């Protein structure tokens, strides 16, 4: 989108006259969207590192066959909490941090619509993160029922399960409030002249994601509440002995869980759709089709949940419906991939780090998408259900997908956040190591799954040893690469470095590049006029 601003509009010069609290009060009582976005990003970084440590403990145990370091119960606690921390503690808050920072800047709003609710929705997260990790120290340890928390296991777990349920309620409430805030801000606070179909695509993807969040988070809350009453109040929702049905839990969970997958990738699609046009120096190919494709993915996400349940004995007609509905998701996703490639086609491309991560994302996400189409086919899914093939699929979509989007967005917007340019040489080192080791880690898992290696097992037959060793080495090096990113790029860029211009990128367009770098505490007090 091309934005021209009428003279005399936009950023106010008297920014410095506004006082705002300093020290701990600035962060505890934060109502400024940039501060809250920063809090979200730091929180997600801490949780990402915690989840990464759990992942490395898992890979440490799996380096060789036999039980090396951990009992299977503790191993399954690591697996479960790793999943929950990464989904609810790392990826989702990171995207909300991007939304808080960028949406008001991109639509020319002075702030988010509900500033105090914004503060509250963030401060629900740290206690929830503490509860998730503190479960390890409860009697019997953390929950070990897998991140999906299927009964009957989850009904039989110790008090660590209750802490997890409470944490999920807090994180769900946080997500719902954040989504309400984002929808209200985008629909009511756009700059004059910015009609919906002229909005940056990142705002579009977040608007659609926010509706998804409001639709599915209460469903998850219902599922874990029913589980809680089964555990402590004598109900039998999921207890077959009392007339309940454990498969009912799967239906409720996956009605949340499948849209959740798109909640974790659609904002990433928005980031990629901002980065590629900037470094190809062309406007996004097929803007309207990108918007409609995003909406189509969101709508389809509600009618495919039972593809997670092909092995529960559903009727053949239901299997066929969910198989074809799942395959249909590939169409709008394919539209997006082809539009990104068409945007790059005959563009004047330069390969700075944000663009490298965007191109790397398209490649690895396509691998994850193709294995997803294979898993939609009922006979294949029944064969590889609950094997490492599924683990490979969703890690390609979430690590190589969501995480690469977050890295692309970080490198693209960090000059606007900090006022400093990152070190390009170090950033490229981070990219190439991430790309190589993410493939070394997760590609062999396809072969493990096809050979019959089940997921969530602490021990395995000897024939799986070589691929497990390769995967564990890849995971260690991928983890070290992210530690390098934190200590060699993130922290030095926050503290200093080359000063960033208002528009550090040649082809970047949009209102966020009309304000100085770093973005002042107050922006757009007089709304800019978009022509």
Structure, explained:
The chain has 531 residues and is mainly alpha-helical. Helix content is 66%, strand content 0%. The chain is globular, with a radius of gyration of 23 Å. The protein has 18 helices and no strands. It has helices at residues 24-28, 33-61, 72-107, 115-123, 125-134, 153-156, 159-188, 201-232, 246-263, 266-280, 287-300, 316-328, 330-344, 353-376, 378-384, 388-418, 424-450, 465-495. Helix 3 runs parallel beside helix 7. The N and C termini lie close together (11 Å). InterPro entries: Cyt_c_oxase-like_su1_dom, Cyt_c_oxase-like_su1_sf, Cyt_C_Oxase_1, Cyt_c_Oxase_su1_BS, Cyt_c_oxase_su1_dom, Cyt_c_oxidase_su1_bac. Belongs to the heme-copper respiratory oxidase family. It is an enzyme of class 7 (translocase). It catalyses: 4 Fe(II)-[cytochrome c] + O2 + 8 H(+)(in) = 4 Fe(III)-[cytochrome c] + 2 H2O + 4 H(+)(out). This is Cytochrome c oxidase subunit 1.
């Amino acid at each position: 989108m091309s934005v021209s601003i009428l003279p005399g509009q936009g950023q106010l010069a008297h920014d410095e006259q506004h006082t705002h609290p300093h020290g701990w009060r600035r962060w505890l009582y934060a109502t400024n969207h940039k501060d809250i976005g920063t809090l979200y990003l730091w929180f997600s970084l801490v949780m990402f590192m915690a989840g990464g440590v759990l992942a490395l403990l898992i890979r440490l145990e799996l380096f060789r066959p036999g039980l090396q370091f951990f009992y299977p119960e503790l191993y399954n606690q690591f697996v479960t909490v790793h999943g929950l921390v990464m989904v609810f503690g790392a990826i989702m808050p990171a995207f909300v941090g991007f939304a808080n920072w960028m949406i008001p800047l991109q639509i020319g709003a002075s702030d988010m619509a509900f500033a105090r609710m914004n503060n509250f929705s963030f401060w629900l997260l740290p206690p929830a993160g503490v509860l998730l990790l503190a479960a390890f120290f409860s009697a019997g340890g953390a929950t070990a029922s897998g991140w999906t928390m299927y009964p009957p296991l989850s009904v039989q777990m110790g008090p660590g399960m209750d802490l997890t349920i409470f944490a999920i309620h807090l994180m769900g409430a946080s997500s719902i409030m954040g989504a309400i805030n984002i929808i209200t801000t985008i629909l009511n606070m756009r700059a004059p002249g910015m009609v919906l179909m002229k909005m940056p695509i990142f705002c579009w993807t977040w608007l659609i994601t926010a509706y998804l969040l409001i639709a599915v988070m209460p469903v998850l809350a219902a599922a874990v509440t029913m589980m809680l009453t089964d555990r402590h109040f004598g109900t039998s929702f999921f207890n077959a002995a009392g007339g309940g049905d454990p498969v009912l839990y799967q239906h409720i969970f996956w009605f949340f869980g499948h849209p959740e997958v798109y909640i974790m990738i659609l904002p990433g699609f928005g980031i990629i759709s901002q980065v590629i046009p900037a470094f190809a120096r062309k406007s996004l190919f097929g803007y309207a089709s990108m918007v409609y494709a995003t909406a189509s993915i969101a709508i389809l996400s509600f009618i495919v949940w039972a593809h997670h349940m092909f092995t529960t004995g559903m009727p053949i007609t239901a299997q066929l419906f969910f198989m074809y509905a799942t395959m249909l998701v590939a169409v709008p996703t394919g539209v997006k991939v082809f539009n990104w490639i068409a945007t790059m086609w005959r563009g004047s491309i330069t390969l700075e780090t944000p663009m490298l991560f965007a191109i790397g994302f398209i490649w690895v996400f396509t691998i994850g998408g193709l294995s997803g189409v294979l898993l939609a086919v009922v006979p294949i899914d029944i064969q590889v259900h609950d094997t490492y093939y599924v683990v490979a699929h969703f890690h390609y979509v979430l690590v190589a997908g969501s995480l690469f989007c977050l890295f692309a967005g970080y490198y693209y917007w960090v000059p606007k956040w900090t006022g400093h340019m990152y070190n390009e040489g170090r950033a490229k080192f981070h990219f190439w190591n991430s790309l190589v080791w993410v493939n070394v880690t997760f590609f062999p898992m396809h072969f493990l799954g096809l050979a019959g290696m089940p997921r969530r097992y602490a021990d395995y037959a000897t024939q799986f040893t070589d691929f497990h060793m390769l995967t564990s080495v890849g995971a260690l090096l991928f983890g070290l690469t992210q530690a390098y990113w934190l200590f060699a790029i993130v922290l030095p860029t926050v503290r200093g470095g080359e000063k960033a211009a208002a528009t550090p990128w040649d082809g970047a367009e949009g209102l966020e590049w009309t304000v100085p770098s770093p973005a002042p505490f107050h922006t757009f007090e007089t709304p800019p006029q978009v022509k």
